[in-house]
Design a protein that fits this description.
Two copies of one chain form a homodimer. By secondary structure, chain A is mainly α. The first copy, chain A, has nine helices and no strands. In chain A, helix 1 packs across helix 4, helix 4 packs parallel to helix 7 and helix 7 packs across helix 8. The interface between A and B is large, with 46 and 45 residues. The first copy, chain A, binds a DNA duplex through helix 3.
Chain lengths: 200, 200
DNA sequence: CACGCTTGTTGACACCCCGCCAACAGACCT
DNA sequence: AGGTCTGTTGGCGGGGTGTCAACAAGCGTG
């Protein structure tokens, strides 16, 4: 008895790389680092395992590419920051963050919590960059387009709050979206009014 | 040429278990889950690898014991919560948290970020319990000894903010302790005054 | 159409790590 | 010393990963 095996097909390198990457994104979004083997990715992609190493190098390199995709925010969702007073702008950026996270919550939260591989320098660097992007957005929204190091660090801390709050909402299901919005808005306003001035 | 090998010594099970555990705590505190093999632990403990499985079962079981140790707060540091008005008590609990984290910062931050294995249900459960302990302490300090689920979740979110802020301070070195204290105090007061009432 | 070349693709080899378990040997008792 | 208990060891089997020479699909050329 022979299993049906798809005939060997040649693809353009870009197409093949993209195909493997999309499969890997799906698998790493469902399970964690340790529970996804390169054999799994290869089988799901209908490809020999060695081909993954050929295109991505190490399994960790593949994972880096995956979380880079997961953490990439679709550019059209940024930039729509309205004018208005501070309270209004803070509410807008909080809404933006909640939208981004909740839209592709599964993969986003999986990636931001390093889905089983935080501690690795390269992985942490990719996550740090994503946090920087979010922190910059927050700072721009509240009127600090060119902050110093301390303010930037505080904005990063705030993103940490936003992430942990989103986890309570999306994974544990114990907060509602209005509650999340209220918490993040109030704390953001406090940071801008009470904490930032003492650190500039 | 023969390498010097220590003679085989028999230890009491508790002593041997403790010895292996302390070695594992050190190694997992320095490096992450993937970078520490049971062979490393065995060699550092001067012991056969099989003995680790005998005492702890799986490598993951050993890791669970390790992070349990890392996240255990020395009991004498709790309970000393002074009376006073809300501002005073909030400052006290923030100081307590900063002390706990900064004292054994390396292992604590390594464990709370799951040093390379978040996503695993058992590991996450241990971390969740540690967050619960910290959240309960915060809630008691600010006068909510028996909160409902939403308030508890918000306190957990706040612990997430505290952790991310501590990381900016201890690992990235870009915030000072007074800045950390100011940020955590102000946001905690805001949560108690503005966010908690809307969710009770 | 036949042939050869480029290069995407494969399969197997070597290595490491992990869980398991039967055999070994230190410590203690008689 | 001999015997027993049990802490301890070393090797086996299974699985995952990186590497690399060999294979073959698609295309150009005579």
């Amino acid at each position: 008895m022979r299993v049906d095996v798809a005939p060997r097909r040649r693809l353009e390198p870009d197409a093949r790389r993209e195909q493997i990457l999309s499969v890997a994104v799906r698998l790493f979004g469902e399970r964690g680092w340790a529970d996804v083997s390169t054999t799994d990715v290869a089988r799901a992609a209908g490809v020999a395992r060695g081909l993954i190493n050929h295109y991505f190098g190490t399994k960790k390199d593949l994972y880096l590419a995956v979380i880079r995709v997961m953490l990439t925010v679709p550019p059209d969702t940024i930039g729509r920051l309205p004018d208005g007073d501070l309270t209004f702008r803070a509410a807008a950026i909080v809404d933006w963050f909640i939208d981004v996270v909740s839209q592709h919550s599964r993969s986003w939260l999986a990636a931001i919590s390093a889905g089983g591989m935080s501690g690795d320098p390269d992985v942490d660097r990719v996550i740090d960059e994503a946090i920087d992007v979010a922190a910059d957005s927050v700072l721009v929204a509240v009127g600090y387009p060119a902050p110093d190091a301390a303010l930037h660090a505080m904005a990063r801390s705030y993103v940490g709050l936003a992430c942990s709050t989103a986890r309570e909402w999306l994974e544990r299901g114990v907060l509602t979206r209005p509650q999340v919005h209220n918490l993040l808005s109030a704390t953001l306003l406090t940071m801008v009014r009470k904490v930032f001035p003492a650190a500039g």
